[in-house]
Amino acid sequence: MAIPVKLEAFEGPLDLLLHLIDKNKIDIYDIPIVEITDQYMEYIRRMPRRDMNVMSEFMVMAATLLDIKCRMLLPKEVNEEGEEEDPRAELVQKLLEYKLYKYMSVELRDRQVDAGRNLYRLQKLPKEVAAYRQPVNYQELIGDMSLNKLNEIFQFVIKRREDKIDPIRSKYGNIEKVEVDMNAKTLYVEAYAREHKLFSFRKLLEKQSNKMEMIVTFLVILELMKVGTLRISQEDIFEDIIITSNVV
């Protein structure tokens, strides 16, 4: 998006068009395209050529005006609904939107100026009011709640918390420096897959004695999946992963 650069009294091609429309007291919905194009081109001729980025924006609008001017001379096009299309319609829509945003920016600037004139004093309440606390009606708060219901809620929350604990990873502490032979582990997994054909990924991990063996086993599974020896499936995102073996 081009950065708006202020050029004399105008901030862009649409701003210049609005100026010409207001200057000539023209109905924006019925723009005399020939007259506006001539005035616009006269302004283009008098523009300084120092900033080509700004100049190019005005030239694009000039080309658009010339295109509309040519289309106005030709027989009017008819849309699918049988209505005649006005070549100026798209330009009028852009001018209306630009005019709306321009007025909104002026309104926001005025509100900012007005807000800068407002002064506020710090809140200062009497000590009695600041210290007041609304009394709590414990009978209304508790309602029909009983110790049995509170215990049921507590047990439900505890159970949900326990369900979030991984039965495998929770048994291990910090990762210890343990050397695991990846080739040997690959042979172990292949032998296990050859024997079981269809097995649980979780159960395979449960057979490992430490975290390092679990990690290496996981890497071996990935490698065997990559070469097409193993395939995995999972019914739900939190369900166990089932591994199907193609090892012969």
Taken from the alpha-carbon principal axes, the silhouette is: flat
Q: For the CA atoms, what is the radius of gyration?
A: 39 Å
Strand-residue proportion: under 5%
Q: Give the biggest beta sheet.
A: 3 strands, antiparallel
Distance between the termini: 62 Å
Major sheet strand order: 1-3-2
Query: What class do helices, strands and sheet pairing give?
Result: mainly alpha
Give the overall pLDDT as a whole number.
77
Give, in order, the helices and strands: HHHHHHHHEHHEE
Number of strands: 3
Helix segment count?
10
Helical amount: 55-70%
Low-pLDDT segments, ≥5 res: 1-7
Provide a descriptive summary of the structure in words.
The protein is built from ten helices and three strands, in the order H-H-H-H-H-H-H-H-E-H-H-E-E. By secondary structure, it is mainly α. The longest helix is centred in the middle third of the chain and has 28 residues, at 89-116. It has a three-stranded antiparallel sheet with strand order 1-3-2. The chain is flat and about 90 Å long. Among the domains are: 13-76 and 85-115, no CATH class; 169-245, Structural maintenance of chromosome 1. Chain E (Arc Repressor Mutant, subunit A, Orthogonal Bundle).
